[in-house]
Known about the structure:
Bound molecules: pyridoxal-5'-phosphate, zinc ion
Helix content: 25-40%
Radius of gyration: 21 Å
Distance between the termini: 65 Å
Order of helices and strands: EEEHEHEHEHEHEHEHEHEHHEHHEH
Structural class: alpha/beta
Shape: globular
Amino acid sequence: xxxxxxxxxxxxxxxxxxxxxxxxxxxxxxxxxxxxxxxxxxxxxxxxxxxxxxxxxxxxxxxxxxxxxxxxxxxxxxxxxxxxxxxxxxxxxxxxxxxxxxxxxxxxxxxxxxxxxxxxxxxxxxxxxxxxxxxxxxxxxxxxxxxxxxxxxxxxxxxxxxxxxxxxxxxxxxxxxxxxxxxxxxxxxxxxxxxxxxxxxxxxxxxxxxxxxxxxxxxxxxxxxxxxxxxxxxxxxxxxxxxxxxxxxxxxxxxxxxxxxxxxxxxxxxxxxxxxxxxxxxxxxxxxxxxxxxxxxxxxxxxxxxxxxxxxxxxxxxxxxxxxxxxxxxxxxxxxxxxxxxxxxxxxxxxxxxxxxxxxxxxxxxxxxxxxxxxxxxxxxxxxxxxxxxxxxxxxxx
Length: 398
Ligand SMILES: Cc1ncc(COP(=O)(O)O)c(C=O)c1O
Ligand SMILES: [Zn+2]
């Protein structure tokens, strides 16, 4: 039977979507799969192949929108330019709503449908809102999306278009996340937020795919952006479980990257603290990873320490430069949040922390098209010409 387990006190509780945090520690719990024989199956979709490692008994094809099986792309031009070790990008931008969130949303929706729940919800600043609204529409659910008051118009519209009940909430965002669960209980809404235990299970699939595509020999590492911590936790859990079942020899080294302007987990890591302290500021260009009180922060800290990884921060300048490099050198236009991975890699490389033969995987979590406003103005790159002058202009630009 599937249960939830608290990473801190080790206690197990029934796997109830409406009761996700440990009653003793008040921390989110994770899914605890019984350790009996699990294997990789044949199947057309990632959920079908890794079903033995997922918290639902069968795949519901009606929910599938093409999430997963995203490409792992070698970044050869960047590798050459900076004399880097072999570096690859797991391109999560090609998921149905253009971010990795779809992987978690589809997993949580499987659980919701299997349990006959009809109302779902999420608390998000953008990417998870659009993902939950889209999958909620496909599943025929009544979907409630609670967003921050200052959420941009493009994010509001790409969520509202799916017919979700979209509510801008004023007040403390971290508190909203916590209170959503009580409201959910009262109104019969299953809030699948960023560290929802079932959502986290969906993120494991990315890790399984990376491993099976790369089949790494020797040491390697994975670099991911970190906000609430849910995604990083899911990726680490994937390798812990694969190793337990003899499907991978070692867990790779994980590096989680935060934006310096809002980096409570990286600060705790750097100062050796076991728990993060909430930060006041959340001023960064990487708006989608700016969470001053990340619900999975303490779990992420504990797990990454036990695995020998690290959580570090990069500056906005480093982030924007990395975003531009990925777009110009590799054709990959990702969100500033996702570009933190390349910024982090360049930082680690500069510190001599990456071995030359080591493969490095950057998880590019979301498309840059979701927030073009984050781009600095590009006047020097946009030309205007009257038709008769076009010939001359092209010649001058060649
Ligand atoms: C584009 C993008 N990357 C990374 C993250 C970080 O994921 P998590 O909150 O699970 O740590 C987010 C979270 O919203 C995101 O939107
Ligand atoms: Zn506990």
